[in-house]
Amino acid sequence: MEKQKTDILTASATSANLSEGHSATTFIFTLEDSQLLSQVLQIINVAELQIQHIESRSEFGASLTMMLVVSTNGNAATGLKMQIQALTKSPVEMYSNSAKMTNGERDSAGAPPEQLDNYPETAREELQAFPNVPWFATTMQELAAHLGKTLQSGDDLDADHPSFKDEVYRARRKVFVDIAKAYKLGDPIPHVEYTEEENKTWGEVYRGLTKLYPTHACSTYNKMFPLLVKHCGFSDKKIPQMAEVSAFVQSRTGFRLRPISGLVDFRDFLAGLAFRVFNATMYIRHHSAPQYTPEPDICHELLGHVPLFLDEEVAQFSQEIGLASLGAPDEWIEKLGNLYWYTVEFGLCKDKDTGENRVYGGALLSSFGELQHCLTDKAFLRPLETEKAAATPYPITRHQDVYFVAEDFQDVRNQLAEWLIKIPRPFMLRYNAYRESVELLYKKEHLHALVRDIQTDVKTLVGTINKIR
Ligand SMILES: [Fe+2]
């Protein structure tokens, strides 16, 4: 019962504290005897502190639950807490709106402001309690710094690569490696002057694939693609600039593109998704084989993936895969890799409009041959089951042995969400878009924050239903 009392005021504490500006601390405590209130006020008076807000509740019995917002912070607040605790002989909850959480600023979680005595300030600090969890970036800054260190060179092409003997092409790939290595997440993406030959290769790929999309791509893809024609100049004439594409996608779903020089470590790739950062190559495949590339290139990124990153549902489940990967054990990263492969890269779904099987996977949407193959009788299709997909290894150099068909994107998202919570990790994670950082969820206080968010959503839902009526 005691806990319930303080819970009720914790929500008020959040809003009261946030509305009072800098250097305010909220104290929540229980008085068994209301006479003690005058003594609490006297302590505050003697300390020459100012009360900004006072609130009491007594619905649950004779005792009084108090919330006081006082103009103080730091050591003075801690001292005050100890004095109140000594007087009331019961625990005192304390929250502060430090400079991090200033007037009018609010985190997306609606979480209580940091507790001064035992509440770590950042996920990085909290992670010290979990030494066995693999390292992961907790903020956009950490992500940027880490990616900058782990980028592979990307210009050491294998002997069976179509360009292996083409020195000009190899030198050109080096240019893209240098761009990717010099790039810092958050900086403007550099303008690239593509050569005539590169634009010609793009044109061939573009014309070939766009002929197939109306009959092979899912309806969401076909609805999004014209937006890229309109806003980013997609055409068969020249390769679009990644900077323009990234800015447009960011304006729609918050996803941004980050130039990379070639393949990145899969854990790092997934970590980017958690922050709505999509690592994408800028170079184009060799002109001798426009219908084939052994590795991702700009055709794969811009034609295969980008149109669907404009869809909120796809953006959401892509980010959820990314969040699930943070701190996951290695063997689970492998399973997650399979799931990513059979959904985001090679996924099929039932078309909303026609009921036919259609493609939403980026690897298929950027591959002439397999895009056609997967919808023929020769392809083996089965309904999406995350458990099976996660346990199915995939071939890289030939068509897939199996394709998983989802009912729709909601089905993908629901199934992924159910599977992702099985990952053994001592916490859940969620992304705070305001702070561009992740939050660890593993304590009772975190439950309060989540419940408050749900309550807010329900209120919005009810309000919207009323508007519709
Ligand atoms: Fe891809």
From TrEMBL:
Binding-site list for Fe cation: H300, H305, E345
Query: What EC identifiers does the entry list?
Result: 1.14.16.1
UniProtKB keywords: Iron, Metal-binding, Monooxygenase, Oxidoreductase
Tell me which cofactor or cofactors this protein depends on.
Answer: Fe(2+)
Q: Name one Pfam family in it.
A: Biopterin_H
Q: Which domain of life is it from?
A: Eukaryota
Molecular function terms, GO-annotated:
iron ion binding; phenylalanine 4-monooxygenase activity
Q: Where is the Biopterin-dependent aromatic amino acid hydroxylase family profile domain?
A: 119-469
Q: Give yes or no: UniProt keyword rRNA-binding.
A: no
What InterPro entries does the entry give? ArAA_hydroxylase, ArAA_hydroxylase_Fe/CU_BS, ArAA_hydroxylase_sf, Aro-AA_hydroxylase_C_sf, Aromatic-AA_hydroxylase_C
**Family designation:** Belongs to the biopterin-dependent aromatic amino acid hydroxylase family.
Please identify the protein, giving its name as recorded: phenylalanine 4-monooxygenase
User: What taxonomic ancestry is recorded?
Assistant: Eukaryota, Metazoa, Ecdysozoa, Tardigrada, Eutardigrada
- Which gene is the coding source of this polypeptide chain? RvY_03656
